[in-house]
Amino acid sequence: MKNLSDSQLYVLIQKRDYVAFDKLFDRYWDKLFKYAYNILADQQQCEDVLQEVFTSIWEKAPSKNVEYIPAYLYNSVKYKASNSIRSKKWHLDLDTIDLSDVTDDESLEIPSEDCRLVLLEESMSQLPPKCQEVMVLKSKRGLSAHEIAAHLGISTRTVEGHMQKGMKLLKASLTQVALFHLLKQSYFFYLL
């Protein structure tokens, strides 16, 4: 595998060869991480972007022909990083908001644990199918990434990518629910 070109590795990936995928991943991870870091300057965001790019490659390879792998990878990272910047511009981090004035008010309802579980279930049902399947195996059956990979017949890195994507989407979804709950309670002005 070491002597195979990127194009040869990609042909093997199209045939669902995990070893070829791992080789391409290892060959480009560091370079792409540095490239993404120059754009985002945030380690966690860079890791998220790269996981999305490599997960996308694995999922789309059988139906997508790519002629020049490096250009495809760098363009994908650039596109995902740009999307990350755009979405971050409108992201409101509720952890940074001082709600001390709000929490003293007796009219603020904190959702019960049952309600939170229902919200979590609803959010999980909105995940992409494969991502949802991985998250269910992880959260409800307690399987490790390696066990999930063996169960689904995919690589451990793909499972990790799905778990990372799932957690990111769940966090965003539940953050929106929390924000909606605050707005519903007429505390919008405390956020300004």
From TrEMBL:
Residue ranges of the TM segments: none
Asked whether the keyword Ligase is assigned, the reply is: no
Q: Which UniProt keywords apply?
A: Sigma factor, Transcription, Transcription regulation
Tell me the GO BP annotations in alphabetical order.
DNA-templated transcription initiation
Q: Name one GO molecular function term.
A: DNA binding
Q: Which Pfam families match?
A: Sigma70_r2, Sigma70_r4_2
Task: State if Transcription is listed as a keyword.
Answer: yes
Task: Give the top-rank taxon of the lineage listed in the UniProt record for this protein.
Answer: Bacteria
RNA polymerase sigma factor 70 region 4 type domain segment(s): 119-170
Gene3D superfamilies in the record: 1.10.1740.10, Winged helix-like DNA-binding domain superfamily/Winged helix DNA-binding domain (1.10.10.10)
> From which residue to which does any coiled coil extend?
none
Locate the RNA polymerase sigma-70 region domain: which residues? 24-90
- Supply the NCBIfam families for this chain: sigma70-ECF
PANTHER family named among the record's database cross-references: RNA POLYMERASE ECF-TYPE SIGMA FACTO, RNA POLYMERASE SIGMA-70 FACTOR ECF SUBFAMILY
The similarity annotation says: Belongs to the sigma-70 factor family. ECF subfamily.
Q: What is this protein called?
A: RNA polymerase sigma-70 factor (ECF subfamily)
Which lineage ranks, top first, belong to the organism behind this chain?
Answer: Bacteria, Pseudomonadati, Bacteroidota, Cytophagia, Cytophagales
